[in-house]
Write a structure and sequence with these properties.
- The chain is of the alpha/beta class.
- The chain folds into three domains: about 55 residues; about 130 residues, 3-Layer(aba) Sandwich (D-Maltodextrin-Binding Protein, domain 2), CATH 3.40.190; about 100 residues, D-Maltodextrin-Binding Protein, domain 2.
- About 50% of the residues lie in helices and about 25% in strands.
- β2 and β3 form a beta hairpin.
- α1 packs antiparallel against α2.
- The radius of gyration is 28 Å and the shape is globular.
- The protein starts with a helix and ends with a helix.
Length: about 300
């Protein structure tokens, strides 16, 4: 429809250009003047060329908006890790995704009147997968940071969080702060390819760094003694401390870092980003985000 309108506008402008040139031709008593005829032809061709270029450039944003594609296809592809409870977890017993951001993804699908298709990613590959258009949006405990913000676009923040250690119960006193962790002989485990891996690896000068690419298994590595400390976000640390009585989150209110979580899309689609932020704003105003926080985070939010 936009292209049709532009073609109509093009025809109108071309007609207007000819009429204008005829008036000029008549007013200057230049009928039959070959120079004026050439000027008329050149002007008309110039107008046509300009509008052909505009027809190519102007509709690009509207045509390529992911929002319009999703509405038309009635499907939104949500990239999620499935290994990050309580935000995103693929339950092996039910083979279904669950968690706070999974529930919000379902609300997103309802708002778009679109089917939600979950596409699982691995944390080291999230950037490449989103750039390769394997999904429309990444959801599930996605930390917002300026480095990745140079490549992708983030929605407004959904929550604030920080990082803290997860250790074996009874050893909280050994690791009260970061200097106590960064010592020879201390085995620190990180989620391979995640934000904490990139942030804390350069800071850990003396401790032994271990990495594991299955986030849902890292707490067990601390529990069985493979690692001494897992530096992760305080929500996740509290989740696993509640799940496994043998583990404890150290100073979850006094975190090493402070950050925010949100959702991530490819850059260059302001239409889609604006709509997502409007939808999120409504979810907060209607209390939906707060209800899901209470449902999935519960007591953890009070301790945090």
């Amino acid at each position: 429809m936009k292209q049709y309108k532009i073609i109509k506008d093009l025809r109108w402008l071309n007609s207007w250009g000819r009429k204008t040139m005829r008036k000029r031709d008549c007013s200057s008593n230049a009928k039959g003047n070959p120079v004026m005829k050439k000027h008329l032809v050149a002007s008309s061709l110039g107008v046509i060329l300009i509008f052909l270029l505009l027809m190519i450039v102007l509709p690009v944003e509207a045509q390529e908006s992911r929002l319009h594609q999703i509405i038309q296809k009635k499907e939104i592809r949500v990239g999620t890790s499935g290994d990050y409870p309580p935000f995103s977890y693929l339950n092996p017993q039910t083979n279904q995704y669950e968690g706070m951001d999974i529930a919000l993804a379902q609300r997103l699908g309802e708002a778009l009147d679109a089917k939600v298709t979950f596409v699982r990613f691995k944390w080291p590959e999230i950037n490449a997968d989103l750039l390769a258009d394997k999904f429309d949006i990444a959801m599930g405990g996605i930390g917002r940071n300026v480095a990745r913000g140079k490549i992708f676009a983030y929605t407004q923040a959904t929550m604030t969080f920080g990082t803290c250690p997860l250790v074996r119960k009874g050893e909280e006193g050994k690791y009260p702060d970061f200097p106590a962790i960064d010592k020879p002989g201390v085995k620190v485990i990180l989620n391979q390819g995640g934000i904490n891996d990139r942030y804390f690896t350069p800071l850990l000068k003396q401790a032994t760094i271990l990495r594991h690419n299955k986030n849902e298994e890292i707490a067990l590595k601390v529990k069985d003694g493979t690692a001494d400390v897992w530096i992760t976000d305080n929500v996740e640390a509290l989740y696993y401390a509640q799940k496994f009585p043998e583990l404890a989150a150290v100073n979850p209110k006094k975190t090493f870092t402070v950050g925010t979580k949100g959702y991530m899309i490819r850059q260059g689609d302001q239409v889609f980003l604006n709509w997502l932020n409007l939808w999120l704003e409504q979810m907060f105003l209607q209390g939906e985000v707060q209800k899901l926080e209470q449902q999935w985070l519960g007591m953890m939010m009070q301790e945090k």
